Amino acid sequence: MKLTELLSSINPIKVIGPAETDILSLTADSRHAGEGAMFVAMKGVTVDGHTFIPSLEGKGIAALVVEQLPETLWDNTTYVVIENSAVALGHLASCWYGHPSRKLHLIGVTGTNGKTTTATLIYEMARLMGYKAGLLSTVVNYVDTEAVHANQTTPDPLTINGLLARMVEKGCSYAAMEVSSHAAHQHRIAGLKFAGGVFSNLTRDHLDYHKTVQAYLEAKKSFFDGLDPEAFALTNIDDKVGEVMVQNTRAARKTYSLRSMADFRGKVVESRLDGTLMSFNGHEVDVLFTGRFNAYNLTAVFGTSILLGWDMEQVLVNMSRLVPVAGRFQTFHSPDGSVTGIVDYAHTPDAVVSVLTAIREVVGNRGRIITVVGAGGNRDKGKRPIMAKEAARLSDIVILTSDNPRFEQPEDILKDMEAGLDTPELQERSTSITDRREAILHAASIASKGDVILIAGKGHEDYQEVCGVKHHFDDREEIRKALNAIGS
Q1: CA distances (Å), 316 to each of 302, 320, 487, in order?
Q2: Residue percentage of the chain with pLDDT more than 90
Q3: Given a cut of 70, is residue 206 above it in pLDDT?
Q4: How far apart are CA 486 and CA 476, in angstroms?
Q5: Residue 240 phi, psi (nearest 5)
Q6: What percent of the chain has pLDDT over 70?
Q7: How much of the chain is in helix, strand and coil states, percent to nearest 5?
Q8: Which contacts qualify for 376-379: CB closer than 8 Å, 24 or more apart?
Q9: Which residues pair with 159 in a beta bridge?
Q10: What DSSP designation does 407 have?
Q11: Contact 70, 45 (CB under 8 A)
C-alpha cells in the first residue's frame, strides 16, 4: 500500500520524507518491523515504543509514525509526526485492512459485567436470524463459525481489523465485540465504525489500572462519545450511571430496563435454576437463563435485535433458543440430582451479589448455598474484603480460596479477603482453603440434598496463573469430579 493512502486516514502534524513510499507491512511491535515496514511508536502503559527506534536502524524501515522525532533521522525513511500514536494506529490499521468495520454492522458492548454474555448472544442471535456473523470476546473469537483463540477482552487494533477483514471476506453481515475500559482508554477501538453500542452496568473493577471509579466511568463513556450520529446507543437506565453514559453521545439514545419505562422492557415472570419465564415488551418467552443479571443481558440482546431491524416475532422465537455462554451460570448436577453445582465468571463484588441473589431467589430456604470464591493476585486489592463479605452475607457457607494468585502469595490474598469478614456471624460461615481443587472437593463433601455449590471467579478459564506460569485448571472439570464423588 502507498504511504499516501495510509496518511489519508490520519491527520499528521508533519511529514518528513517522500509520501509515495511503498509500505509492505504495518506494526507497533519493533520485533516485527523489517524491510518496507511502517512502525508506529506508541507510548504504552509500561513501555514507550519510541525507545525501540534506534534498534531499527539499518533494517530498511520505510516509515516511522512518532509523537516526537528522534535525534537522528535516517535516509530513505519517512517520518510522520502525529499527536497521538495510539489513535493513529487504530485509523492506520483500519485503512490497511480496507476499513472492514464499514462493511459490517458492528455492535460494541461495554460495562463491568455482562459484556461477554451480551456480545456472544448478539452474535448467536444474528446467526439464528439467518446471517453470517463474527464475534470478538473474552472467551473466544469467531469468524462466522471458525473459532479463533482470544488472548484478551479487546485485542490491539491490527488484530481487531484483521479479524473484521476476515469476517467480511467470509460474507459476515454482522459482528459483536466486547469493548473493555482498557481498550477504550488505550484507543484500541479508534478508527472503527460502530452501528451501535450497548451499556450493561458499572460497578467497581480494574481500579488497579484506572485508579478511581470516575476514571473507569469516563473510559467506558468515551466509547459512546465517539459513536456516529447514524448509530444507536442502548443503555441500561436501571443502572445509576446508565443515562450518564450516553449524555454526550451523537448516536440515537435508546433505553432498556427491568424496573422502569423504557424503549425495551424486560420482566422476570418465573425463575428456575434451569431457566426463566420472561416477557419482552409484553411478550412472554421461556429462556434458558437464570437470574436478574441475565434478564438484563437478554433484554439488551432483544433491544439490539429490534434496533438492527430484525423481525420481532422471529427475534422472540429465537430468544428461547439462545443458550448460556461457557462459564456463565453453567450448571452441573450430582449423579442422583440431589446437589447442583454452578460455575460462574463472577469476579467483582457486584457480580457475586447478582449470582448469589439469583440462586437464592430460586432455592429459597429449601437448600443451602455453598460458595467457593477467591480474588486474583496483582489486581485491585480493595475489592477483596468486599467480595468476601458479600459472598459470606449471601451464602450459608463460604470457602475462600485461590484465583490466579499471579505473583502474590495466596495466603496474603486470603488475609485481605478475610478482613471483610468483620462480624462473628460472617466468620462462623467461612473457612479458607488455599488449594482451589481442595476447596471445591470440600464444598461437595459437605453438601446435602437440595444444596447449591457456586464456584465463582474463573468461569470459562482453564488455567491457574501462578508466578507467571499458567497451569491447567478448569472449575467445570473440578466440580464435575467433585459432584460425581458424592455418594460413591
Answers
A1: 8, 7, 42
A2: 85
A3: no
A4: 16
A5: -60, -25
A6: 97
A7: 35, 25, 40
A8: 376/347, 376/403, 376/404, 376/405, 376/406, 376/457, 377/404, 377/405, 377/406, 377/407, 377/408, 377/410, 377/413, 378/208, 378/406, 378/407, 378/408, 379/206, 379/208, 379/406
A9: none
A10: T
A11: no
Which pTM does this prediction carry? Answer: 0.83
The confidence band for 243, taking pLDDT boundaries of 50, 70 and 90, is: very high
CA angle 434, 440, 446 (to 5 degrees): 110
> Which three three-digit cell numbers place residue 155?
485485542
Pairing of strands 105-110, 196-199: parallel
Query: Where would I find the H helices in 129-241?
Result: 157-169, 181-185, 207-210, 213-225
User: Phi and psi for 329 in degrees, rounded to 5?
Assistant: 50, 45
Top-confidence residue, 255 or 351: 255
CA dist 293 and 128 (Å) reads 23
Residue 210 has pLDDT above 50, yes or no: no
pLDDT band at 152 (very low <50, low <70, confident <90, very high): low
Give the pLDDT score at 211.
55
pLDDT surpasses 70 at 123: yes
Residue 32 per-residue DSSP state = G
Rounded Cα distance between 379 and 181, Å, is 15
Task: Read off φ and ψ for residue 469, nearest 5 degrees.
Answer: -115, 135
C-alpha 377/C-alpha 417 separation (Å) is 12
Grid cell in block for residue 50: 519510541
Name the amino acid, one letter, at 96. W
Cell 514507550 belongs to 48
CB 327 within 8 A of CB 461: yes
**Distance from C-alpha of 216 to C-alpha of 193, rounded to nearest angstrom:** 23
- Cα 50 from Cα 90, distance rounded (Å): 18
